[in-house]
## 1
Amino acid sequence: MTTALDLLLLALLLSLIVGLGRVWRGPGFADRMLAAQLLGTTGVAMLIVLAERFAQPALRDVALVLALLALLAVLAFVARVWDPDDAVEPTASADGAGSTGLVGEPGAAASGSDGPSSGDHRPRQSNGVGDDHG
Amino acid sequence: MRTTAATGQAIVSSRFWTRFAARCSALAGLWWILTEGSGGWGFAATVIPLIAWLGLRSAPARAHRIRPSRLPVFIVFFLHQSLRAGVDVAARTLKPSLPLQPALLRVPVALPAGAPTWWLMLIISLLPGTLSVRLEGRMLEFHCLDDRLAVERDLRHTEARIADLFGCDRKRPGVSAP
Amino acid sequence: MADSIMDGVRLLLITAGVAFFIIGSIGLIRFPDVYTRIHALTKADNLGLGLIVIGLLLGAGSLATSAKLVLIWLLTLVASASAGYLVARAARRRGVKPWQAKDTPPAKGDDTPPPQSGGH
């Protein structure tokens, strides 16, 4: 049983490496983002098999955390790096809007809530990375 | 007058305590699973009622709730479809000719907004050949691997299953306001 | 005797699960665009993980451990379906066009919305 599980773990590692080949080649940015999903699911599979193979129940907790972190990585990527709403949104306009009174309708201010968080001053160009690396 | 108000109050509060008890048992179950039954119940017993109470106080009542009695049927449906989806995509991957005929399709969602629609969007991504791409109003745009498949029939079927799970109505597709 | 049969069944299930992971990775390499690759990744990997989880919980020592394995699978399902949807939506908003088979007629215009599929 243990030898078989060792072999299966190796096979999972192999599939992870094959999948990472796609991430390496891209070509689009979204293809690279699939890495988080791939690492998440394959990582979870490897961890629960490892927990069985080495009788380490704590590894199952690691699997739970990994599943959550993989989702967080995708969320962060989509929200901050790649979503075009970010690219269109003028930076740092939300801060001053309230003081003028005429422009700053509460609804208008709220509609811009998807914009980049304050203190995040990436150069605009970084939003457009990736599509033409090929 | 006073008596009706009092009974109304009593009904509300008895419902509150029922939901409180249900939530406490759900959290206790989660604790048991996460600790793999290894104890720590002293800590759990202090924290669980607190979380359950805070949750009920702060979260608004949900418009759509899952009916536990329908869960087994739904789980069987879901497992069967997951199996079909995995086998379908694996067969396509392994065929040398790579039989794909992808398309983006739009269909009106018949389920009410909120939890039922979210369930639909997540679940069709795990069904054979479909992947949610975006939701605009009540129109769902999805990608399908092969438009020769009966994807829309599958989608309507899934909607019916979710409506049954939540006990909610469906609008008939195509009748929705422009 | 019964134990060795059980071990065999478990190994079979886990091996099948690992096979789906490998197929998912092959699909990731072979499929032509990001949307189809998401199909390969979410569906194959989740079935693979499900089979591995069933295989492992057949020999799990306690009920709580089995429940935890199922919880891990459910969480991964939700995470994976959400992640696939988010990446697909981001790609669509960025205007990434889906790959089309050669024998299907190309879309009429660049920015026309996709055709509404016929209702019943």
## 2
Amino acid sequence: MVDKIVKLGNNQEFLILDQTELDDNVYYLGIMVDKNEEPMNVHMFFKEQKKGNKTLLVPVMEEKERNLLLTSFTINYLDMTSIGEV
Amino acid sequence: MNNEEINVDEVVRQYNELLVTIDSKIRTFNLDEDIFDLTGASQYVNEIVVDYEKYRKIVKAITDNAEKFVLSNLDVKSLKNEVTFYGDKIVTIKKKILYTYNLSIRILNDRKQRIKDKFTTFPEDGAKLIEELEKENFPSRYQKGIDSFQDSLSGADFSKVRDFNKLLSLIEEKLGNRLVFIDEESYIMDERIKYVDELIKKYTESGRPLKKSIMMEIDIMRERLSLLRYQETGLQVKINELVVKLNNAVYGKKKTSSTEYTMLINSLGSFASELNGFNNLLLNTKSAFNKKVYDARMKSFMTRYDYFVNLINNGISTPIRENQEQMNAIKNMMDKVTDLIEKLKSHQKENTSQSENGNTDNKSKENEQGSHEENDDTFSNDVAEEANRLIADMEKFAIELDEFYENFNSGKSKLSNVDMTNKIKSFIMRLGAFNARVNDLPDAIKNTEEYKSVFLDKLELLRKKVEKNKFLLIQQNANDNTSSRENDSEPFEVKDVREPKKINKYYNKPVLIASALASLALLNTTIGTFLIPALIVGNIALIYKYPIMDKINDILGKSIGAKKDKKTGKWRNAAGIVIDKIKAIPGILKSIAVSGFGLPKITKKLVAKVKEIANMTPSDEYIQGMKERNQEVIRRETKKLCIRYIKSGLSFEEFCKKEMVPDSMVEKMAEYIQELSNDNVKGRSR
């Protein structure tokens, strides 16, 4: 899903910027985009859930979980911007 | 000013001098403080206006004779904007003064009438209070009038007061009425602000420009509202204090048991919480133990403690004594108070050796500065009282900030965006007021070494707490843009997944990620403190990969809702201020690198990374990477370089050498110039 735009059940669209795995769960970092695909001032962590064939995204609101994700995604980001990799 | 007579150096000197004067005068004008001294504030602003007029004339002379000032390092074009900028500031200040003046007169008249009405039973006290108010001639100074009244109560002969409850209710009613009045004012202003906000929204939606006067008016109202709320809190505290004092003054008088019991329990409760607050302060700032402050506060605590002991032993009426349940509650509360007093006393023992050691130093210092002895005498009385009050007020404010943060962060409480903005603004204003109070502390305190460790550190702590609360607002704005809080943790089905059509073309992915992480990290100051540097490191890395760093902070700013003032180039809102902070972080990182102790591992890693990146030099390899990744950016940069080259009047080789243009870029420039000349040839042939 990374680098893709996902349309959610509430019709909001998010560009998925990155993903990480913690305790066998998959998490995504998304930024909301408008109908012109312009990024908006809304950023979200999502947790992936599977229900049958459906994929669900759950916004992460719990503070400790968010802090963990911040650390994890920041480290990803640092790796990404390390010299020679971008 | 005649053209012939212009002495460029002299005009520039005058210009600089006046600019500095006006700018510093406007900046030092403190709305919180100066506005209360209406006459002083008006005189001060009139002085600024005189300087401003001189300055405006000089700027006009400069702009009219721009060619003479070419070499004077003045940006002649922007001078007019500068004049407008300062002119607007002065108008705003004047409006605020006028508004406050009108409001003060209205409040004063209303208060006078209410006090007259309420004090018919005790005309002398009422008259005295009115006299005080007449002297002060300003609403915030009511506080002093009340203080004075309070003082007169403590010295009054209450043997003639037959009905204590009647007196108490009169005073409570008098102060309560003030609260109601302030509350009414707050409500009216709240409504006005809501109305104007709606108006602004409609204007914005319709695309019509907003009138500057409307914006100013609403700013003034918001500030006035924050001030009223601040006064409201202060008055509530006053009422509680007054009740305790009154209780003290009429100690031993006959009271009805239920009022007496409630009052005693409440007084003990508030005393216990005050003791607890001071105890926590001492526990948290052990290294900054201030003996003078401690002694002054303990003296006041012990007086009150003795009063309670005496009251419970001798002054409680028979109906309460016979009520076992009430007596148990009183005793339990008193035990708690005694326990806290003992805890406070233990701090003295713990710090005795420390303060004794400190005394040796102090003595030698006092010998060096002979006048200190005198200051200390003053310090131990009125000054210590004010210092204690200030510390207590700051503690209360800190608790309020913590509670506010916890309630909103946990979702227990909710406020509309407008209310939240106002609340945060009121916090900022109150912080400003504390800042002024700390600054205004007399030299007797400022000259002590503990000034920094007690007052300044406490102020810094408050500033951090206010900052933390500011992030709640950013968080709320972000949440409001998505869905309601209740729905946030509900799962959303993924209906569609598709490739973006244009995002990657216009935005750098690392920049988007940095923006997203910065925005999310800002919501949590604790973790943000060391994660934001990480993002900065990433951005530093980007500088070396893409020569477009100027834009990155703008994009980062935009993504968290920062707004810039086009005229001044300064950030206009909280998010903008955050960006400034982010910009300052490399400096912070540097200092961390120098000190390098007690840091989270991640920060140490980051420091290493900064050092690693800082040692690198941009090379053709990076330019090559840039070329592959962002052709559009290259083209834009090439175009800019070419325009600069054409304007420079230099030969192509000279320009490239002077600007140190990398080889790969030179080729691009050559191609672009070739394209331009081809277009010109085509244009001419057409």
## 3
Amino acid sequence: MVLSHNIAHNIPFLSIFLAIFGGIVTPLINDGQKSRRLHMFLTAVIGLLSLLLLFHVNFNQERFTFVMGHFPSPWGNELKAGPMEAVLSVTFSIVMLLAVGGGKDLIEKDILYEKQSLYYVMLNLLFGSMLALIYTNDIFTGYVFIEINTICSCGVIMCKESGKSMLATIRYIIMSILGSGLILFSIATLYIVTGHLLFTHLKMSIMRLINSGTYDFPLVITAGMFTLGIAVKSALFPFHTMLPGAYETTSVSSSGILSGLVIKSYIIFLIKVYYCVFTLEYLRDIKVTNLIFFMGACGMILGSVMALKERRVLRMLAYSSVAQIGYIYMGIGLGTNIGVTAAMLHIVTHAVTKPMLFICTGRMKDISLEKTANHRLKGIGYKDITAGVGFVVGALSIVGIPLFAGFASKLYLAIASFYSPFKMAVALIMLAISMVLNAMYFIPPVVDIWHTLSDSDANSKIVPKFIPSFNVAVILFIAINFFVGICYNSIFGIFELGIMLIR
Amino acid sequence: MIKLITTNYFEMTAIILFGIGFMNILLQDNLIKKFIGLNIMDTAIYLYLVSYGYISNRTAPIIREGNWQYVNPVPSGLVLTGIVVSVSMTAFSLALVQRLYKRYGTLSFDEVIKKLRSGEAQNGSES
């Protein structure tokens, strides 16, 4: 026992409460810097609490229920936490902290001073809603926090208040609304056929319905609509159209958080619903896993192809995210526990990589003196070594080079494919093609960044200001990347334990 | 088939309304009409939920003396929560549309994209 049970069991609620409390208190501060400090402090506290929770649940091999209020199930509301939730909460806290810390100078440049505290209100609520999606044991609570997440994401996307960012927000909100409609319809149908909203009772009722053969059609429709709704919200190919504009027009910290964390929180909720409500066996029987395997595989290839065609680095990173989301869905679509575990590992590896790429790109664009898009990053690696190295490490990780984080999840995705004989060949071929494509679209910007500068180049005249917070954040991101890339067996073990306890 | 429709007319109406709302969001060019589609879609789901929550000859779940039967309050609670969420989304979306209108002087989505692209072309390419 690491902590007393009483303390440990309160951590999930406390984490969500602290983040939302930060959102409520921040408007009262009305000062950008103080709001940022409060946000980072709360995120660090939540990260530490989550780390304690991780040690506790991993040591005790425990998954517990926290009852909210005085009404026990099936009437009350519940949170549930185990090793899987704890490791995700730790990852989200660290990435959130580093993304905001690393991009704080750019946030100050991009957002009007009087609006900065409102930006941190959005970030606090966004973080709270992501934690709620990780911990909740109630499907309707999940829906409510999905919507809070969407509104906060839109607030974060339009923080620059340019015409482009407003258009990107409209696109984002339209796609999100379509996804939400499908999710709400499926939740309403689930409640109508089962009479429950808590995962545990939903699962028991659904098992009874499956065994008795009643309500077959509504159940299939519900599972399909829920999957499709989450797929739309998490920008799985072909529903990815909202991403490039959104990531290009907002501040780079926001792009990192949206790409690395927000989209993943929906997928985590989907995985929880798959295990705690429908069961993977049932989803395999009704072929829902085949559908997401197909869409994931298409996303892996076509996302990379679109990234290859893109010249603007931020948009290229957005398309790269579409491809990486494809990897995650392909892992889930394998329809096996090891496939889902590999997908969870990919969520972590992508979360620690993509925000680093975004903040490094933002920094390099910021110091560049070149006017044209094609030469903006030319030779900039020599002017800001940390940003250049951070970008290269991120690129190598996304490609899947050994010792970097991305390698671990891709290795496990390949191993997982052996457990699904009918999908093995397709999965392995898609993985191979996609990795080659990843390397192809990352080579031009890396070559550009480390291009030798001559005196005639505008970028040779750069004298960059040293920003300690950016350097510390990128160095920590690199260290975490190597840590995940080397100690991936332990993280995979925690996810395996988490999946075993969730079943 | 006709029997199925006539005995489940609430569900059928809800599904048709959901479809109308969904297609409205997808296909309408006018931004205000797009978000009216959101409200139609959400209202369809509330109708669907409420139709199952209501049982004739039963009352609202408020404690009173004597023998009485009440309807399940959960669907109504869900609908209320859903309405709050839907109102927030609508308010946010309309505020955004208003800003776009102030900047570009149009409610047409395609027109906004055109004006933005022509502005971009004038300012030169951005990275």
